Amino acid sequence: TQECTILTVLSLCPPPFINSLSLLHLSLSSPTLSLCLSVCVCVCVSSPSPECRDLIGSGRDRTPNALVQVAVIDPREQYLVSQACTEIVEGSRDPLFLTGVTFPPEYPASPETLVKLTVYDVRDKARDNVSKPLSVSFLGSATFSVSDLLRSKDDQLTLNLRSSDGVLAVGTVLVSRVNMGEMEEGDMDHITADVQQAQKCTLVCESSQGTPNDKDNSPLTVFKNPVCKVYKFQTVDSKWMLVREQMEECTLSFSIPRQLLHLYIQEDMRRIQELRDLGELSPHWDNLRKEVIGRYGQVIAAYQETLAELNKITGPSFKPSCSKAQRYLEFIPINLHTQRMRVTCPRQTDAFYDVITVGAPAAHFQGFKGGGLQRLLSRHEAEKKSTAYQCIYYSPEHTAKAQEVLHSVGHLQPLISGLADQLLQAAQQHSMAGLREALKTLAGKTEQFVHALKDELVKSALLALHAAQPGYVTKNQNQTLPGHQDSPVVRQDSIPCHKEYDEEEWDRVWADVAKSLNCVIAMVDKLQEQEPINNNQEQPIPKQVLADVITSHNPEGDWREQLCPLVVRLKECVAEVVVRARRAMTFVLLQEAACSIPQGLFLKQRRDVVFSQALAALACGFVMRLYAGMEDKGFLRQLHLVGLVAQFESLLSTYSEEIGMLEDMEVGISDLHRVAFKITQAKTDDPCDLQPVVIGRRDHYTVEVPLPRLAFQTLPHEIKEGKALQVYPVLFNVGINEQQTIADRFGDISLQERINQRNFEILDSYYKSLSDKVPSECLPCFQTQTDLKDLLGTLGQNVVTKKRKNVEILWLAGTICRRLNGIRFTSCKSAKDRTSMSVTLEQCALLRDEHQLNKDYFIRALDCMRREGCRIENVQKNIKCRKYAFNMLQLMAFPKIYRPPEGTYGKVDS
């Protein structure tokens, strides 16, 4: 038949390259059947059997290097839909395959869809040319339909492997359907018995349908395009564990940067308006203001253009590594993916381990000729001090304080105004309890307002602002007046004064606020005294000086009428303070911008870019960790009492361009301490209402994470009340490539040493805070029960030890992070090659330490994950080639445990 012809042709065509398994899903649909399956192939060939006792290689005396390719064929369309492969088992006539194969959801299938297994002998897997196909020889094949598997007894099929002419039987294949997470000990024993009984190929079909409580059910609004791989590894007690890797893209890769760009634009537009609101300035200061406004306008225009381009993008939810230097994508994190490893073992509860992989947050489009942010900011600050001849120099602490005051002004003034209105409403209702409650809150917020704004910086900046206006004199007549290009730096120890402004005015403004509040408090006290006597008399308040209002005779009358003029006066006094403070702090920021032109604004743009990438990754990690821990009361308690540690592992070298990337990354990760998270209840369960939302300004952002109503109701009271949840970012870096070898021998590694030591101190401080507030039973349990304090002590010793490529720092930091319920990130330049080596090593170490992986299987498991797992799929997604971008010379400089298996690497454009 035509169908048979197609199968025969496929049998004779070796794969263009030998893929690793792709975890993919078959979606089945028929009038009587609606079901979603993950088809994964676990080819297990162990002890001899009559069918496959001796596989014959392509040569008479050759022992085969066996590989099984799995293809899905649509009989209606009659073409190959997808294909994937197991790992290669070298030099064995009785091979044992550990890797499974699955297919993606974009390939719809019906019960009539055919699955074809083809066994090849790989004659030469090592080659220099990555585009050259592997040299393979056909050994045998078998075909079955999905309906055959669904109708089979015990969810198993036994198939014969046949030669290319379809006549000679050369082995058997056992096809089994298994639901991941539902494996009982008997199921595992059955698989083991199959292996011991006869040499067979086992095809395991895994159901992707989960229960509502399945921790693999990620929020579909955030994570998408899953790629899965399945393996079967042996434990020390000769049992079998099933391991599933699942890698997904995150929609926050684009969503968070878009929101940040919108906030950046709004903030800079407000800054322009505030500069215009400074009023009339002398020609010198007015020219500086115009120049700063012009620079802000350029930044806004560039950001608007970038945002417009981002809004046009549809399709994949990640930025591939080959696009890392594209201008319009510079705010997007590089190759951001989540990866979860789920382990099913007999007599154990399923366990899962998460990691977020992302390229180092860095400004690739802007380049690294002058270094990265850490170096550029330090150099720029020094230059400002030495060359700021035309403006008043304010330190970074002062400018940060100015931004904080402006935020407090914007937040507290409307709050005080609203509380004052509540006070009048309670007075109108003659509710003394409501009056007292509103007054207590109003007094508290007013006191907070005083503490936030009554600062010497505000007072000195007000004096400096008045000196920058036309018509002033200075205390020191010998000082050159500002406004001249050759004037010296105006220091804060020679504060100018204005002929229409004296230094007592700011204090008088604050006295009016205090006096107004005292008047309100006194009036409420008087009303409370009068309440039992008579509440119905009305007497207007005499128009007197506010200080005398309370002491005057004031018969009982309408409470609102008596309170209203006092409340109005309080609001007017607060508004006057706000106007003065806002102008003063805007003037401080004008100096900072004027001293920085043009380099300062370029650095601000660079910092915006790096922070955007870092925040997108952090938000992705937080959402993933939150959903995974929704049923863990200890985790939720830790979350609101202390917060979470977010541990970034970096494999960048401290040499050439990568040292600039690391300097960018250090600042970007450090800036994440300005971020807080808040859990909210979504308005509806619509996907649009479940997207995280960013609010705030550059020096403080809050990410609001909406949860469906039912999930939100299960949270602790403190979280539901909107408590800000803190994240403590820490960064540890150890370079492992050939450039790090050069840096170790001839360069400077002080940046790496400083980063590791500083972040160890942050991690140690977090642990101490956690120990004081959260009992140890809230933390997760691990098989390796090394005390956390001992692990931290060992890490502390390693960060001060002079040792080249001390990757134990990374292992210890990752272990401590998992023991602390933290969020794990792994990065290199593009999160593609070195990151893949690190993630697979960590996964196999977890299988060894926590799930008793047989030591004889450790290297094989590592090679399987690197050759056939999610990470090689990540490489394919990024550069359209299934090769890690290493060459043999580079790998000689790598620690051995970080080297990929032969045949999986070659120098390619990344």
Automatic annotation (TrEMBL):
<comment type="pathway">
    <text>Signal transduction; phosphatidylinositol signaling pathway.</text>
</comment>
<comment type="similarity">
    <text>Belongs to the inositol 3,4-bisphosphate 4-phosphatase family.</text>
</comment>
<dbReference type="GO" id="GO:0005737">
    <property type="term" value="C:cytoplasm"/>
</dbReference>
<dbReference type="GO" id="GO:0016316">
    <property type="term" value="F:phosphatidylinositol-3,4-bisphosphate 4-phosphatase activity"/>
</dbReference>
<dbReference type="InterPro" id="IPR039034">
    <property type="entry name" value="INPP4"/>
</dbReference>
<keyword id="KW-0443">Lipid metabolism</keyword>
<protein>
    <recommendedName>
        <fullName>phosphatidylinositol-3,4-bisphosphate 4-phosphatase</fullName>
        <ecNumber>3.1.3.66</ecNumber>
    </recommendedName>
</protein>
<dbReference type="InterPro" id="IPR035892">
    <property type="entry name" value="C2_domain_sf"/>
</dbReference>
<dbReference type="InterPro" id="IPR000008">
    <property type="entry name" value="C2_dom"/>
</dbReference>
<feature type="domain" description="C2">
    <location>
        <begin position="20"/>
        <end position="159"/>
    </location>
</feature>
<keyword id="KW-0378">Hydrolase</keyword>
